[in-house]
Design brief:
The complex is a heterodimer of chains A (493) and B (236). Helices cover 75% and strands 2% of the residues of chain A. Chain A is built from 20 helices and two strands. A two-stranded antiparallel sheet of chain A has the order 1-2. Chain B has one domain. The radius of gyration of chain B is 23 Å and the shape is globular. The chains are: A mainly alpha (493), B mainly alpha (236). Chain A: Belongs to the CPA3 antiporters (TC 2.A.63) subunit D family.
């Protein structure tokens, strides 16, 4: 009997369909648009089988080449991996459903194959247990998102795509150099094996590769000095892609940072700096979002701010802080995906991205606007939405950070939440203002995906404590590194 | 000016960090844990004479599958960004000279043959699917340079590209269904140094070689978009 609870399938199924669809695309071009949908649905089935085991506390492994690690590549799924890969595929499923009705620009077949590859690469990063594998998956992720950002081939999307390519490739090489230096130190690439060997390595020899890997991942993760590509790339991309980039790509990059920091390096001397970087990211992201007139650009800056928020929480370094950080990640991914998808509908209805042009939109298309409001309220953290509980958890952990910085960050997070509230309130006000402008009615097919996402948010809001308990389990399993290390390395001495 | 100084200082800091790092690094200490395992076990476990190939294609075959996908994604990205639709770019090319034309005719089959030789002997000699495939693509590049009217049939090239990728995935899945582990060796190892040795590596490298060759040719075709690329590939 074939065991379906194997993480390798999460990578192999999308690849199989991607290669298959390039063959059939000249003949059956109309079918290609269903490929990402099928792929993420099949992935969700596999994730279900994995999840049954993971929730009982075991770590599900997928070896390749029929041998044992560290000699071959291994994919490992613990609770943290599980929740990230689940989010990737749920969002991938809903966004590809949205894309079926949203994408009209040719060549749509190639668009959907690239989107499949984006889902594949994000899933891959979130389940691999091998450091070089992270680099390879990262390359696929960047390349597919380069193509998708520049997809519209207008002047600003080509410019944004080019900026993204330059920074993304630079980030990839930093990551590669970091991995190479690690290999030179330890002679192995398996994360768990590296972790056991790094105990015998000096602190400086650990710091340099950590910093390189961190900055390599931080470009994709949109941390402060390295995120200048993001405010251009998100607005220029088609809305489905903006949602995917914002909800999934940044999240997987931050996940990779968390995994490398905790499991491989067991925290590093760099963490206090990480705290400051995250604080700056939060502050500048929200301030910049406040001054935007372009709806998608505002959301893009808000993504930067939110990323800063959950990295800030993570860098406190306690179990509670990791738990709060993961919960906020979940909240951000779902609500920001809704916001971008709805923004896509709004832009399609009125033809410009300017917020002021939306005057009166909410009086015509009530459902779309209400979805926008719900997601925005959850993102800001207004009770009784899920975002309130995650932000509360973050605020509680921030006081654990020693010294003055802890209090400063506490104040800054509150301040950022107020700014967030102000700029979203401005949009609400414009949406429901009286105007005699005629808008196209919303396409009902496009509303389905954001609607389901808002339903998920509502369900999360109704049971915030059980979600926070689960994220607490995640953090607990993450902090107890030895469980991960021994179960990946098995009987290795 | 100030900006340049800041950049200079920044670069100096990076160089200093790497220099300090490298000075602390102890060369000559045996860290070859995993590497030694590969050297000792390649022949009994995989039957390949080329250890490098056995590492890239067998022990770390999952990475190579990723690298194959990287190229696949890049080719798709180029196809998307250079998509011309109805308004094709018209550009008059200078006609190439007699020597190039005749030379291409003579050399082209040998280039394909060498490429095929390189990817089929990846488990025995230096080289492999990527190198052989790149060589094949240079043959097509030469065709484009010599004859203006060259146009490859995109449907067939997509077919070869997809089949090459599928070969890799399906062989991997065979391992998954028969031995419970993706890319497990399901074929006999054969006699060392024979062409038919090395288990799953030979078919995988043939697939990779054909895939890389057709993929790079597709990229060349996209970049030379005044040739009728959309007529063959872009329509339904």
């Amino acid at each position: 009997m074939v065991n379906l609870a194997n993480p390798t399938l999460l990578v192999v199924i999308p690849l199989f369909f991607a290669f298959l669809s390039i063959i059939i695309s000249p003949f059956l071009k109309k079918l290609i648009k269903f490929v990402p949908l099928i792929v993420s649905a099949l992935n969700l089935v596999v994730i279900y089988f994995i999840g049954v085991k993971v929730l009982y506390g075991s770590i599900v492994l997928g070896t390749t080449a029929g041998l044992n690690p560290p000699y071959v590549i291994i994919l490992a799924v613990d609770k943290l991996n599980f929740i990230i890969v689940l989010m990737v595929n749920v969002l991938g499923f809903l966004i590809s459903f949205y894309n079926i009705f949203y994408m009209k620009e040719e060549p749509t077949d190639k668009f959907h194959i690239l989107f499949t590859l984006l889902i594949m690469a994000s899933s891959w990063i979130s389940i691999t247990g091998d450091l070089f594998n992270v680099f390879v998956a990262f390359e696929v992720l960047s390349l597919s998102s380069f193509g998708l950002v520049g997809y519209m081939r207008s002047k600003d999307s080509i410019e944004a795509g080019f900026k993204y390519v330059v920074q993304g490739i630079l980030a990839g090489s930093l990551l590669l150099i970091g991995v190479v230096l690690i290999y030179a130190q330890t002679g192995t690439l398996n994360m768990a094996h590296i972790a056991t060997k790094l105990d015998y390595v000096g602190s400086l020899e650990k710091l340099v590769p950590y910093v390189l890997i961190f900055f390599g991942l931080a470009v994709e993760g949109a941390l402060f000095p390295l995120n200048s590509w993001l405010p251009d790339a998100h607005p220029a991309a088609p809305s489905g892609i903006s949602a995917m980039l914002s909800g999934i790509v940044t999240t997987t990059a931050i996940y990779a940072i968390i995994r490398v920091t905790v499991t491989v390096f067991n925290y590093s001397a760099f963490i206090p700096y990480l705290f400051i970087i995250a604080l700056l990211t939060l502050f500048f992201g929200e301030i910049a979002a406040f001054f935007q007139k372009d709806l998608k650009r505002m959301l893009a800056y808000s993504t930067i701010g939110q990323t800063g928020l959950f990295v800030l929480a993570f860098s406190v370094g306690t179990q509670a802080s990791i738990s709060a950080s993961v919960a906020q990640m979940v909240n951000h991914s779902f609500s920001k995906a809704v916001l971008f998808l709805v923004a896509g509908i709004m832009i399609e209805a009125q033809g410009s991205r300017n917020i002021d042009d939306l005057k009166g939109f909410g009086r015509v298309n009530i459902l779309t606007s209400i979805l926008f409001v719900f997601a925005a309220l959850s993102l800001i953290g207004v009770p009784p939405f899920f975002g309130f509980f995650t932000k509360l958890a973050i605020l509680q952990t921030l006081l654990d950070f020693p010294g003055f910085l802890g209090y400063l960050s506490f104040a800054l997070v509150l301040f950022a939440a107020i700014i967030e509230g102000v700029y979203f309130y401005r949009v609400f006000k414009i949406l429901f203002e009286k105007s005699d402008k005629n808008f196209q009615a919303e396409n009902p097919w496009l509303v389905i995906s954001p609607f389901i996402l808002v339903l998920i948010l509502v369900i999360l809001s109704s049971r915030p404590m059980s979600v926070l308990n689960f994220t607490n389990d995640i953090a607990n399993q993450l902090i107890q590194r030895t469980i991960y290390l021994t179960s990946v390395l098995g009987g290795l001495k | 000016m100030i900006r340049k100084i800041v950049y200079g200082v920044f670069i100096l800091i990076i160089i200093a960090a790497i220099a300090i790092f490298m000075s602390n690094y102890k060369f000559g200490v045996d860290k070859m844990d995993v590497g030694k395992y590969y050297l000792d076990n390649t022949v009994p476990q995989t039957g390949a004479a080329n250890v490098v190939t056995s590492v890239t294609l067998f022990y770390r075959g999952f990475d190579t599958l990723g690298e194959v996908t990287v190229l696949f994604t890049a080719a798709l990205g180029v196809a998307v960004l250079y998509f011309m639709g109805e308004n094709k770019r018209k550009q008059k090319l200078q006609e190439s000279n007699f020597v190039t034309k005749i030379g291409t005719r003579v050399v082209f089959p040998f280039i394909l043959l060498t490429g095929a030789y390189i990817f089929m002997h990846g488990h025995l000699t230096p080289g492999g699917g990527f190198q052989g495939g790149a060589l094949i693509a240079t043959g097509f590049l030469l065709l484009y340079l010599a004859y203006e009217e060259t146009s490859i049939d995109r449907k067939k090239f997509y077919l070869v590209e997809g089949l090459g990728g599928l070969t890799y995935v399906i062989i991997g899945l065979l391992g998954f269904f028969m031995k419970g582990s993706f890319l497990a060796n399901v074929l006999p190892n054969g006699t060392l140094f024979d062409l038919l040795s090395g288990g799953i590596m030979l078919p995988i490298y043939i697939g990779v070689g054909l895939k890389v060759g057709s993929e790079l040719s597709n990229i060349i075709d996209d970049l030379m978009c005044e040739v009728k690329c959309e007529e063959a590939g872009g329509e339904e």
